[in-house]
Amino acid sequence: MEGDQTWLAARVEDALRLSQKRSCFLGFLDEGQASFCRTYLSRREGQFLFWGGHEDAERTMLGFFPPYKEPAPAAFPIQSCAFLYRKQYSLTHRDFLGAFLSLGVERDVIGDILVGEGLGVAFFREEMAGYFSQNLDTIGRVGVKVVSPWEGELPVAHTFLDMSGVIASQRLDCITAFLCRTSREKAAGLIRSGTVSINHRETLSSSAQVGEGDIISVRRHGRFVVDQLGPLTSKGRLVVKCRKYQ
């Protein structure tokens, strides 16, 4: 991970330098990479913006802009492509991603992939959108019709499973034990092994404090949003409400 961050920091520095004369863009970045870049850029000067083609994007480009140009989503080289298919067929995010990668492209030219009933919408680097449109007529053995750019409604990005209960405190091991339906001791083991992240950053401390709005990821168990912490019960325990990504 450290090597990846060194490489990413070098790319950010190059982009900052180039953006003194022209706009330039990195990505698509995953949420962990974007989180690292936000932290890194908090110590640097320059105009930048994260954008992934829609308001709730998880995979985003990082745009750098010269002093004379206002950062704006419309400036990003992103194009949407819709893949229409018969509603009786069921396709998944994995089906779409597998089809895209089978064309020999790098993952960072592909942004979010939103899959609904009879419709999948993907966001690509603008210069690659035509390549995907021209070379894909099936996804997972299902025939598709490609419309690009797509200006219609987007499929819902996520559905959630609501979870609620009580925990001893806001410590990460308490929250992890609740989310994974396991003991606090086993939750601490998951944390020590590096499988737990808060807001897309690996956290090795069981005593780390979790706050409302935090996103907790536990490898092989899923990803969760912490919506509410509190109030305290009559026994001094903490009411918690979360949602699990489906």
Automatic annotation (TrEMBL):
Keywords: RNA-binding
Domain RNA-binding S4: 170-230
Gene3D superfamilies listed in its UniProt record: 3.30.1370.160, 3.30.70.330, RNA-binding S4 domain
Keyword RNA-binding: yes
UniProt-listed CDD domains: S4
Cited Pfam families: YlmH_RBD
InterPro entries named in the record: Nucleotide-bd_a/b_plait_sf, RqcP2_RBD, S4_RNA-bd, S4_RNA-bd_sf
GO terms of molecular function: RNA binding
Name of protein: RNA-binding S4 domain-containing protein
Native source species: Candidatus Acutalibacter pullicola
